[in-house]
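Please review the protein record below. Let me know how this chain folds according to its tokens.
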Amino acid sequence: MAESFLLGMNGKLYLGASDDALDSMSVVDHVRDVTITMDSGEADITTRGNSGWRATAATLRECSVEFEMLWKPGDAIFEAIKNAFLSAGTVELAALDQARDVTGAQGPKGNFAITSFSRSEPLEEAITVSVTAKLAKYNDWVEVGS
């Protein structure tokens, strides 16, 4: 029986200007490991009628996208991310588990503030930058073909 799974190398990160449509966004092709973290705050809704069990309700959600990319001054995508960090601006990101033209591809899309832009200069490796982008405006949960 063949197992079905997706490989991380097939995921795609797209970048555009604020509120760009997915099909007009550019693929970030010099990115390495990408981590999408989605969390929710919690409200304690415990009552005496809950048989001694604590009850919790999800509240505000948050999303961050962390990735490492090659340090490439002059590259349009690198410059857009760097400038968003330096100006406290935002960029539109879509972090999909597959290419945007694959039916079933999905992931968060929105305007993200770049909150960390840290350069690493290892002796025997390429210079890279570790980027943390936090959701400033949620636009959509992309599901291609649905």
Q: What stands out?
A: The two ends are 27 Å apart (CA to CA). The chain has a mean pLDDT of 94.
